[in-house]
Predict the structure.
Amino acid sequence: MGRRNSSCPRAIGLPRWPLVALALAAFVLVPRPAPAEESPAVPDLARLARLAGEPKIPGLAIVYLVPLGDPAAAKHWKHILVHQTEGPPGSARSMAQAQAANPTKRGVTLWVETDGTVYWATAETAIPTHGDGANRNDNKYIDNAGTYRAVTQENSLGVEFVGNHPDVRKPPSADQVRAWLILVRFLQERYGIPAEHIYAHNWIDFKDRRYCEGCELATLARKLAYRPGEDAAR
């Protein structure tokens, strides 16, 4: 018989059950933060996603610089493309306003501030200039067989997150993540975009070697595995 381990609770005369009880109590009583990929349900999402005007989306602060129209007129959106500006916190409103003044300039349809506020900058039928034509063909991040020269500004709805200046490696804020996981489901439901058609900028285009632009946000959205037309009905 081997020597009894002196670190064992029984070896120092302590019964096991109080220790087990304490461990269970600690597990139950100590609050644990929800995983970042969890997002609250949006009541009546299917109905909201069909509305024109300025639909109020529960849990989301959204400013419409232009009202929405009929989503059937914007069926050219087949993908969602996530960008990060390399711009400072507090710049989303001004960038969205500049986009609204010139909808087809270099930029995107939606801009997200570090506090989670979303600015819808252009008519949903307008096509801003963003992305570079899906020129990544190296499978570095994802299989590029379905994106090369296929995920373009004409068919990809762009969402831009500000705040990673001066350090481009700074991740999106917690408020941006929370807002995104609500916003992306609204966009998917409105335009019928499946989760596998959500892309980070760096997944499809060459950009900045210092960081992977949009990769964290696109990955979180894909993990939701939201199915437009099905999950909103639950």
Summary: The beta strands are 62-64, 79-84, 110-112, 118-120, 156-161, 198-200.
